[in-house]
Design brief:
The structure holds 3 protein chains of 3 kinds. Chain B is of the alpha/beta class. In chain B, 52% of the residues lie in helices and 7% in strands. Chain B has a domain at 33-125. In chain C, helix 2 (91-102) packs parallel to helix 7 (230-244). The model of chain C is unreliable at 80-84 (pLDDT under 50). Classes of the chains: A alpha/beta, B alpha/beta, C alpha/beta.
């Protein structure tokens, strides 16, 4: 049985995985590199890209050098021409995307010989990511998407089958605070799926028809259209009675704090379901997440995000390192069934040492 | 004081009368409304502290919650008291529970109002006592360590890091500074909340937080003891959180607060209806706390021509004075502001500066006039800047200004380095010492340029004020009569924080302050 | 021409290299501090260092005025100043370009989002007056602008951009060291993605610490840093709108 992160990924039989960070410096790239290395050992063929990176090999915020990425032979990867030239991986171009980066044309390449290092750049929106995915599908066993900063949109379940979440000391100055914030963020990402199949079907249709749809207890539908969710919610703010007797509120786009604070809560909506497409559409703070529970308002998704594991980086560029053990155990306890690793920690290294055979 | 220039006191009376009538109108509006920041101030004075997990202060969370439910017209004090009565918990405990989303304030059943008020009043009383204690502490320290002679040397620190600020402030005190102002991080005035804790990063300044106030107060008390004179600490009771910062200053014994009735409207595009209410409540706090306010008329001269618009400064000073009186401030607490901003290339420009400074000195003889240094015409030429600052210092000492905000030779380049501040203090000390009693030797020529200029400015101010009485202050601002900036009555930041008081509106501090300050409406 | 080869400062004779520097040290004035100052001056490339004034300026700081001879020169005949943007067009070119290639007025919405209230940068790009002798976008006859000012919530900016059917959204941000603003910028893009609106606009972010690379990482289309002029931004917008269409 495969161990480590690649084991968790393989078990779920996912074809594409996004790595998302809960903050910058949470350890996304270390996570990415670990999975690449483990997959290569297991003979899993890879398609690699980075969601958002671009430019030179220095971090654009801290001006420190970015960690390089090792590309195993045979791997398909997306980057720009000049970024490839700056790296050491011999490669052949297999597809021109037509996109441009700071570093030139963005292409899909195949790594040759023994592989080598390269920086992956050039893809920074979900529509571009979708195009790359369409191409890679069937050509590789696993597509792996490195995240950018704290962006979540690459985790959309229609885009990637599974997600590894990177968290770390950069989120807070104590172990408890990091755990607390990680759990809160994961709670949003992994909201439960709607089980009532009739409601699910209604919601799917409603999401195509209007920005916000209110289903009354009588079964009547109130469709609130707008150029965006924000126009639609403005209409509801002005006519809060629309929420009376709501049994479900369906969002085609984003659910944000102000909707709850200015409409749902003051209008005393209770015992109602709120449906969104998936967890990446939820932009709510902790208090409002709690108040939802308090008022028996169930937040549900059509497409659940499958979180495969959590990695935790106990160091932060801004503060003293935290206790790795405490973080890992605390997160494991709070997240119940999810695997949690400190990839640089002794535990993981030891397990991996046996597995990769003492490679440096 | 002997009259160095002749003042037409009948014209001054006309000005004051007009200002009174202008501010009477404003007071009607003030009495009918409250704002989110006034309500947050009530919570802060009730002892509520801390933030939620996203760093949003609990006071904000509670006031927003009540406001979203359309209940803020009752006064947040009522809803806090209601929760205290319903849950039998103290204010802070309730705030924390609300912050975590364990319940929302409007969900609790309404309790008997008389009991609720009784409960709130007991806590509020302690808040007032805390402020009065700090005032007494200042008075006794000032007796023990009297501050130096005026003009006081006022310098700023602005590193962004409170601990670096402390070092630089102490260095300035050692060099001779009397007053230290901690400049706020750029644009804190537009934050609709006040952060918590000590802060070590900011842009162009350091966040005003209660903890930062405390840290600097302690350092200046120490430095003052070593220097043998009381060192005054300044911050900014302005922007969207004007009264909250006044409350913080009151309990941490700040001595001065920048606090203007119109600055935020004009220069920060904060809604005027909100600002007028905020300035009133914050000034009551400053009045009770014995804090001297600094007004911001000097800024008008940075956007307009200082020669053409000098009268707008004077007119605004009359308005600030009148609103100050109506908030219970004493003249001695009004650091009315103006500035040395006439184009240095103008022939006889220095004479016009003297005319303005002398005029204001004589019209408000008991107010500690705040004199701002040249900034508009200061470029990166530090040598020229140092010389112009010398002329400014000379104007200050020869017209007996109260608070001399020292110009920095590196104005327009960066926030002052430690040596910039030292050089500017040396500049001022040299001139103040070298010309200390010059003012006593001066009488201005009766029909001279200075006298004529002063007459002209005063007359123009009177006619400006009288024209405002007709249209009202809000319309005057809308018409761009101050600083050539027009602001709409229904525009600007923070209008959504303006709330009409309900029949049952309750604010325990407003009532206590009025009694304390003998304000009769 | 040859004398420009190794050009040095001029004190009172050609290439004498004489300059004055002043600085403070976190040391009490004294022989040790003076020696530190002198050695620092040597390290700056000064010779014949003369500490002409030293004094205490409080709290253990001292201030120095130093004269010395700069030992380095610069070949003044070889100086070429690089242009910041390679294909920046002029005000007139841009307006012509829009008439010719786009055929309608373009619309730009700008805002400082989140708690950021530094409107100076945004105003320099958007307002009539402009910056460094370049007219602001508002002045362009072929560009319509909406400047929402500071502290605009992400959702309000998106709402406005949809309402006016904007071509480009311009966000001005001061990115702090602790990156509080980064969160706000990534959230903006994630919100657009959540709404399915990401590809409707050119997304541009500007600010003193913004680079083009950072902008892309944030999910924007372009980033502009210090010294950017309105026509740089306008050039980018029109050139890329054409590509988009």
């Amino acid at each position: 049985m495969k161990k480590g992160l690649i084991g968790d990924i393989s078990r779920e039989k996912v074809k594409s995985v996004a790595i998302i960070g809960l903050a910058k410096n949470a350890g996304k790239t270390v996570t990415f590199n670990t999975i690449v290395e483990e997959a290569a050992q297991e003979g899993i063929s890879l398609g690699l890209l980075s969601y958002g990176r671009d430019g030179e090999l220095v971090d654009s915020v801290t001006l420190q050098e970015k960690p390089k990425i090792f590309i195993p032979p045979g791997t398909l990867f997306v980057t720009a021409q000049r970024a490839l030239e700056k790296g050491s991986v011999p490669a052949e171009k297999v597809l021109e995307t037509g996109y441009f980066s700071v570093m030139g044309e963005v292409n899909v390449y195949r790594a040759l010989d023994r592989g080598g290092y390269a920086e992956l750049v050039g893809i920074n929106s979900t529509s571009r990511l979708q195009r790359i995915k369409d191409y890679l599908q069937g050509r590789v066993d696993l597509m792996l998407v490195d995240g950018a900063l704290d962006r979540r949109s690459s985790a959309v379940p229609t885009l990637t089958d599974g997600v590894i979440v990177a968290t770390g000391a950069v989120l807070g100055n104590t172990e408890d605070f990091v755990i607390f914030r990680t759990v809160n963020e994961l709670q949003k990402l992994t909201l439960p799926q709607v089980t009532d199949s009739r409601l699910k079907e209604m919601a799917r249709e409603a999401m195509e028809a209007a920005s916000i749809t209110i289903i009354k207890r009588s079964g009547e539908l109130e469709k609130v259209k707008g150029l965006s969710t924000f126009q639609a919610q403005e209409k509801i703010f002005k006519n809060r009675y629309m929420l009376n007797d709501a049994s479900a509120i369906i969002f085609s786009g984003a659910l944000i704090d102000s909707f709850l604070e200015k409409a749902v809560f003051p209008e005393m909506v209770r015992d109602c379901k709120i449906l969104v497409r998936d967890g990446t559409r939820v932009f709510l703070n902790w208090r409002n997440m709690n108040l939802l529970k308090e008022y028996n308002l169930q937040l549900l998704v059509i497409n659940p995000v499958q979180v495969l594991g959590v990695t935790v980086n106990p160091t932060s560029p801004y503060s003293a390192p935290l206790d790795s053990q405490k973080l890992v155990l605390g997160l494991k306890k709070a997240l119940v069934r999810l695997p949690v690793y400190d990839l640089k920690g002794e535990g993981y290294q030891a397990k991996r040492g046996a597995f990769v055979g003492g490679k440096n | 004081m002997e009259e160095k220039i002749r003042i037409s006191w009948d014209v001054v009376d006309r000005c004051r009368q007009a200002a009174r009538s202008i501010t009477d109108d404003i007071m009607v509006h003030i009495h009918e409304n409250t704002t989110t920041t006034v309500e947050r101030t009530v919570l802060r004075l009730m002892g509520i502290e801390g933030s939620d997990e996203q760093g949003i202060p609990l006071a904000n969370v509670m006031v927003e919650q009540i406001n979203n439910s359309g209940l803020l017209g009752d006064g947040v004090a009522f809803w806090l008291g209601n929760a205290m009565q319903a849950t039998d918990e103290g204010p802070q405990k309730i705030a924390e529970q609300v912050g975590r989303g364990e319940f929302a304030l409007p969900d609790l059943p309404r309790q008997e109002p008389a009991i609720v008020r009784q409960k709130v009043a007991e806590v509020a009383e302690r808040g007032l006592e805390r402020i009065k204690k700090k005032r007494a502490e200042r008075e006794s320290l000032m007796k023990e360590l009297p501050p130096g002679p005026q003009p006081w040397l006022y310098v700023i620190v602005a590193t962004g890091n409170i601990y670096e600020d402390v070092k630089q402030a102490r260095a300035a005190v050692e060099k001779g500074a009397d007053i230290i102002a901690v400049i706020r991080s750029t644009a804190q005035s537009l934050l609709d909340y006040v952060p918590y804790g000590p802060t070590t990063e900011g842009f162009g300044g350091t966040y005003a937080t209660q903890e930062n106030f405390r840290i600097m107060r302690e350092a200046l008390d120490d430095g003052g003891r070593e220097a043998g004179r009381y060192i005054q600490l300044v911050n900014y009771s302005s922007g969207l959180c004007m009264p909250e910062i006044a409350a913080m200053g009151a309990v941490e014994r700040l001595d001065m607060m920048l606090n203007d009735s119109m600055y935020g409207i004009l220069f920060r595009d904060i809604n005027m209806k909100r600002t007028f209410i905020d300035q009133h409540f914050s000034r009551m706090i400053n009045a009770v706390a014995g804090i001297t306010i600094n007004t911001g008329e000097d800024n008008y001269l940075t956007t307009t021509d200082a020669l053409d618009e000098a009268h707008t400064v004077l007119a605004s000073q009359f308005i600030n004075e009148s609103l100050g009186f109506k908030s219970g401030l004493k003249t001695q607490q009004m650091g009315l502001g103006h500035a040395f901003e006439i184009d240095p290339d103008l022939e006889d420009g220095f004479l016009f500066e003297i005319a303005q400074a002398q005029l204001i000195r004589q019209i408000f003889p008991h107010a500690p006039i705040k004199y701002m240094p040249p900034t508009k015409y200061i470029t990166g030429d530090i040598f020229r800047a140092h010389l112009i600052n010398g002329m400014f210092n000379l104007a200050g000492v020869m017209t007996g200004q109260g608070i001399q905000l020292l110009g920095m030779l590196t104005e327009a380049i960066h926030t002052p380095f430690v040596q910039d501040r030292a050089l500017s203090i040396e500049n001022a000390r040299y001139i103040f010492n070298n010309a200390r009693d010059l003012q006593d030797e001066i009488m201005f020529v009766p029909y001279g340029r200075i006298q004529q200029r002063a007459d002209e400015v005063l007359l123009k101010a009177a006619s400006m004020l009288e024209s405002i009485t007709e249209k009202g202050l809000m319309q005057a601002i809308e018409d761009g009569m101050f600083a050539n900036i027009s602001r709409p009555q229904e525009g600007g930041k923070g209008l959504d924080g303006l709330v009409k008081k309900g029949e049952e509106y309750y604010n325990p501090f407003s009532d206590m302050f009025k009694e304390e300050l003998s304000i009769h409406e | 021409m040859n004398e420009l080869k190794e050009l040095r400062p001029y004190g009172d004779s050609f290439n004498d290299g004489k300059i004055q520097v002043s600085f403070s040290l976190p040391l009490d004035a004294g022989l040790e501090a003076q020696e530190v100052a002198r050695q620092l001056a040597y390290k700056m490339g000064l010779e014949e260092v003369n500490v002409v004034d030293m004094k205490n300026i409080g709290e253990g700081f001292s201030f120095f005025i130093i004269y010395g001879k700069l030992k380095y020169g610069v070949d003044a005949s070889q100086i070429r100043v690089a242009k910041a943007v390679s294909r920046s067009m002029s005000y007139y070119e841009i307006n012509d370009f829009i008439r010719e290639h786009i055929g309608r007025k373009i619309l730009v919405v700008g805002a400082c989002t989140g708690s950021d209230a530094h409107t100076v940068g945004l105003d320099a790009i958007m307002n009539m007056k402009g910056f460094a002798g370049e007219y602001g976008l508002e002045r362009y006859p072929e560009i319509k602008t909406v400047n929402m000012g500071s502290q605009v919530a992400n959702e309000d900016l998106i709402k406005k951009a949809m309402e006016v059917n904007a071509d480009a959204i311009l966000i001005s941000q001061v990115v702090t060291q602790k990156e509080a603003h980064i969160k706000n910028l990534t959230e903006f893009v994630d919100l657009l993605e959540a709404e399915g609106l990401r590809d409707r606009f050119l997304l541009i972010v500007g600010g003193p610490r913004i680079s083009h690379e950072l902008a892309l990482e944030l999910g924007f289309d372009a980033g502009f840093g210090q010294g950017t002029k309105p026509n740089d931004v306008a050039s980018y917008i029109v050139q890329n709108l054409v590509k988009k269409v």
